[in-house]
Structure formats: structure tokens, C-alpha cells
């Protein structure tokens, strides 16, 4: 399946005075894709979104929308709409008027506007609230209206700037599902900015991890989590154990490494050229404990325990390294291990990953 | 103890109000119903003649005829104040917008510059305009260059320029405060939803800056109604307003009771504007609650 290119960002850099927010960033977003820009604050993700919207102009480089260069067009001449972090609903207008605002500026006639506003209110389940003002709504309802307002003018791309950050936890989870559904229903390309890795993994078709003004990795959620290409990505997405290891031999996507615990294991790799020092990322949930221990076995002592409900996190001191291990609480508390208890840990071949040097 | 403080704590304020506001007001009210003194001043003799004189003039045989002279002056004053307010609104909005959207340091500097004229006496500033608008001044030259007839000074236009100059900071400040409070994302949302700068200004900024514009309108309109300096100096005294009228009655015309009556009519006008405004604001708040 070949999909059209919705947005092409080519060698875009952006400086604010002496500060370089983005350094020659290039990537392509496909049509009908849920694309996420993920990174810590100050990584340049919001700057990138604002440049696609037209609120900021790239210092160098170009941005195209469906093949047309838009890098320097003012925002009102771009067929993209934004859902703002603060929603930015017009407080003096009713919800209807808010949604109709973009349509009026595009010159839609009254009948068509009315039909579209009704359709949008229906889409976000807000029809009974049409005549209310934004101040009379809850956070989640405002969020929905902001979505309806941005989707109404049929944008070629919808930009979402951390739209869930102002909502409480339960509502955030529900809105994730709604956003995903809305994206499938409308078939519009979504570009979603967040610093929340869970949101990114949950919703995205592809994730672009940004850090220090550069793309750290671009891939599907499972690629980003399972096959992090560098320490930044492995550290930012999920929790992990970093181990200083010695690569003994490399065989295609596999490498044999000696760990500080003394054992040798097979690990996945990409970008390691040959023997030498390297960093190994070993996710806590990939280490088996006691009855789940398989593969290479090592012994250790539990030094800390954090009960999280569905999971229990253990800190286990082994000879040569302190490992974080997490175990799903599948059966009962009988499976829990006390501080000071001796436990067996197991690492299966291929479950750890050698990071690029 | 608390109760006592509440009462005694307010005493200084009450005394101040009584001495500086209430007492002069009572005196003016009393003068306005007194008889005109032969050589200025007044005599204690109750009469409503000063109020009657605003509308009527005594004919040859003491019969009263309606005389629109003073009604016209009152009308002209109100019109002048309205035009001043409208021009101040139109000019202050873009100025306030530009200031409100600058960085914090530029913003502080620009606001300081707006308030700078208050540090110089009003009379000195209006005199400065006398020079600027004179035939040899920058304003006068510009007027001639633009094809203006005669000299600019001592015309209603000159007076208006002076009034707009004097009162515009009172409009810029509240409008700035209103615009500065706006979420900048609202303006971006306007542009994002295909509104040109002009449409965003008209449909987003003006409605949301409205409380500031309304406050500024009161702050400009009220003193503009009673203005004396600009009509006297820049209008050359040819354009009589309520302010200059009151001034002449107490001065050269030596008709204190009539001056006091006009002053109270002016005050009634101002109170009327303020009351209407307060009622409207109250209604709006009720409607929104």
C-alpha cells in the first residue's frame, strides 16, 4: 500500500536568538496517519508543530503540505487546524459560533455551515450544548468542542498540542480512545504533540522521538519500545536497566555480550560494528524472577519492593549489578518476595538490546 | 473591638469626603439658587432664575422666550466629548494591542512612555500644542501641506486634536489591561481558523477588549465633558463649551449663580452616564451568572 505524503519536513532548523530549538530535522508524515511528536519539554516538539501551523517560520529548511511548500505562508492560508493546549475557545461566542467561525472565514454559505456545525456537534456528542458558552463547560467538554471546531473546516492535517494535559487521569484515558476513533472515522492525518510516553504508545501509528532538537528515533510504538536505537530513547520510553557490557562477537542483528553479572547473553543489536564496550538496555519486565526465571540464571537478593497493584517492582542486588525487575501479579500475594530474600533471576536470549555506540 | 475599628477606622475617610467633596458641592448647590450679586458673588435670596436662564431669556416686557443658546453649548460639548471618545477608542486599540503583544521589557517601557505626559503640567502640554498647531509649527505646516484652509489653530479641529492628545492615555491603559489578559492562543486560534488579521481584530480582539474600551470611554468622556483648557487655548475661546462657560460665569461675566447652575447640570450629565453604565454592567453580570 502506498500512501500519499501529507506533510514533508525537510532539513528544518529553528533558532530563537542564540538558542537552537531544532537542528536540521527531516521526516515525512503519511496521509491518514496518527503521527506523534514525543519528547521531554524543550525538545522542540511544540516548535515543530507551530511551524506546521504557521505560528512560527523555520529559520532554514522547508515544510510541504500535500506537495505544496507552506514554510512561509501565514496560518490563515494553510489548510491545517490546531487543537490548542489551552483549547483557546472564543469565550464570547456560543459553541455553535465557535465551530462556525472557521467556516465563515472560508466563505461557506449559511445552510452548509449550519449542517456542518450540527454534524460536528453530533460527532463529539455535544449537540444539546450548542447554545452554551465555553465557560459553562467542563474540561472534557471544552476539549471536545476544540476538536469539533478544528475538524469542522475539513483540514488536510489536524494538529494537536498536548490536548490531554489539562484533563484528569480517568478522562484522559477516555479521550485517548475517542481521539483514536475520531481519527479513524474522519481519515484526517493527525499530528499529536505530547511528553507522555503512554499516550504516544497507546494512540500512534508512528512516533517521532525528539530530544535536544534532533530526531532520536522514528518508528512504530513497538519499534520505539522494543528496539530503541540509543540510550536517550531507551531511557525516555519506559523504564530500563542500563548495563555496561563488553561485546564479544556480532552476528547480524545479534550480539554476544559479557554482562557485569558475569554471565554471557545473546542480545539484539543494531549499529554495533564489532567487539568492544557498549551499553545494554534490559527492560525490568523482561527479567524472569523465581518460577518465571528462564534462560541464563543468576542469583540475587531483594533490596526494595514497590507494590503497584497490577505489578510489583523489585530491586535485586546481584553480583556485579543492581537490577530493577518487575513482575505481573497474576495470581496472588503468595508470589511476592520479601526484602532480603534470595531469588533467582533469568534472562532469555534476545530479550535485552545493545544500544548503538 | 472589631466593630469599633470598622466605625472609627472609616472616620478619616468620611471627614475627608465631607470637607473636600460634600461641603463644596453643597455650597455650589446653594449658590445656584441664589441671587446674582451686583459686582460678582451672590446674595442669599432663593430663586430658580439661574436654571430658568439656561433655557429662557427675558424679553422686552419680561415675558420669557425660549433661547437655544445654552442648549446648543451643552449639545456641542456632549458632541465634542463623544467624538473625542470615539477617536481615542479607534487610536488606542491598535496602540494597546501592539504594547500588549511585546516582550515584558518593551511592554514596561512602552507603558511608561504612555504615562509620561502625566508628569508634566497639563497647561504646559496644551501650550506646547499651541506652538505645534500654529502656522509655523509642525502641525500647522502639515495642515497647509495637506491643503487645509486658513490656519489650523483656533479651529474646532485644533481643539479636538488637543483633547484626543490629553485623554488618550486614559483609553490606552484600560484597553491594554484588557488585551494583555487575553490568552495569546485566542489570537492564534483566529488565524488558525482562516481569519485574516483584520477579521481576528474585529471578531476576537474587539469583543474581548470591550470591557477595557468601555472603562476607557468613561475615563475619557467624563473629563472631556468638563474640559476647559483645550477650548480656551487651542479653540481660541471661539468655541464655547460647558467648561469655558462655567469659567466665564465665575470670571468675567460675574454671574456666580448661573455658573453654579451650569456646573450642576454638567455634573448631572456625568452622573447620568455613570449610572447608565453601572446599570448596564450590572445587567450583563446578572445575565452571565
From TrEMBL, chain A:
<dbReference type="InterPro" id="IPR003439">
    <property type="entry name" value="ABC_transporter-like_ATP-bd"/>
</dbReference>
<dbReference type="InterPro" id="IPR027417">
    <property type="entry name" value="P-loop_NTPase"/>
</dbReference>
<dbReference type="Pfam" id="PF08402">
    <property type="entry name" value="TOBE_2"/>
</dbReference>
<dbReference type="InterPro" id="IPR008995">
    <property type="entry name" value="Mo/tungstate-bd_C_term_dom"/>
</dbReference>
<dbReference type="InterPro" id="IPR017871">
    <property type="entry name" value="ABC_transporter-like_CS"/>
</dbReference>
<dbReference type="Pfam" id="PF00005">
    <property type="entry name" value="ABC_tran"/>
</dbReference>
<dbReference type="InterPro" id="IPR005893">
    <property type="entry name" value="PotA-like"/>
</dbReference>
<keyword id="KW-0472">Membrane</keyword>
<keyword id="KW-0067">ATP-binding</keyword>
<keyword id="KW-1003">Cell membrane</keyword>
<dbReference type="GO" id="GO:0016887">
    <property type="term" value="F:ATP hydrolysis activity"/>
</dbReference>
<dbReference type="InterPro" id="IPR050093">
    <property type="entry name" value="ABC_SmlMolc_Importer"/>
</dbReference>
<comment type="subunit">
    <text>The complex is composed of two ATP-binding proteins (PotA), two transmembrane proteins (PotB and PotC) and a solute-binding protein (PotD).</text>
</comment>
<dbReference type="GO" id="GO:0005524">
    <property type="term" value="F:ATP binding"/>
</dbReference>
<keyword id="KW-0813">Transport</keyword>
<dbReference type="GO" id="GO:0015847">
    <property type="term" value="P:putrescine transport"/>
</dbReference>
<dbReference type="InterPro" id="IPR013611">
    <property type="entry name" value="Transp-assoc_OB_typ2"/>
</dbReference>
<dbReference type="GO" id="GO:0015417">
    <property type="term" value="F:ABC-type polyamine transporter activity"/>
</dbReference>
<comment type="similarity">
    <text>Belongs to the ABC transporter superfamily. Spermidine/putrescine importer (TC 3.A.1.11.1) family.</text>
</comment>
<feature type="domain" description="ABC transporter">
    <location>
        <begin position="7"/>
        <end position="237"/>
    </location>
</feature>
<keyword id="KW-0547">Nucleotide-binding</keyword>
<keyword id="KW-1278">Translocase</keyword>
TrEMBL record, chain B:
<keyword id="KW-0813">Transport</keyword>
<feature type="transmembrane region" description="Helical">
    <location>
        <begin position="152"/>
        <end position="179"/>
    </location>
</feature>
<keyword id="KW-0812">Transmembrane</keyword>
<dbReference type="InterPro" id="IPR000515">
    <property type="entry name" value="MetI-like"/>
</dbReference>
<feature type="transmembrane region" description="Helical">
    <location>
        <begin position="258"/>
        <end position="279"/>
    </location>
</feature>
<dbReference type="GO" id="GO:0055085">
    <property type="term" value="P:transmembrane transport"/>
</dbReference>
<comment type="similarity">
    <text>Belongs to the binding-protein-dependent transport system permease family. CysTW subfamily.</text>
</comment>
<keyword id="KW-1003">Cell membrane</keyword>
<feature type="transmembrane region" description="Helical">
    <location>
        <begin position="70"/>
        <end position="97"/>
    </location>
</feature>
<feature type="transmembrane region" description="Helical">
    <location>
        <begin position="109"/>
        <end position="132"/>
    </location>
</feature>
<dbReference type="InterPro" id="IPR035906">
    <property type="entry name" value="MetI-like_sf"/>
</dbReference>
<dbReference type="GO" id="GO:0005886">
    <property type="term" value="C:plasma membrane"/>
</dbReference>
<feature type="transmembrane region" description="Helical">
    <location>
        <begin position="204"/>
        <end position="225"/>
    </location>
</feature>
<feature type="domain" description="ABC transmembrane type-1">
    <location>
        <begin position="74"/>
        <end position="277"/>
    </location>
</feature>
<keyword id="KW-0472">Membrane</keyword>
<dbReference type="Pfam" id="PF00528">
    <property type="entry name" value="BPD_transp_1"/>
</dbReference>
<protein>
    <submittedName>
        <fullName>ABC transporter permease</fullName>
    </submittedName>
</protein>
<keyword id="KW-1133">Transmembrane helix</keyword>
<feature type="transmembrane region" description="Helical">
    <location>
        <begin position="7"/>
        <end position="34"/>
    </location>
</feature>
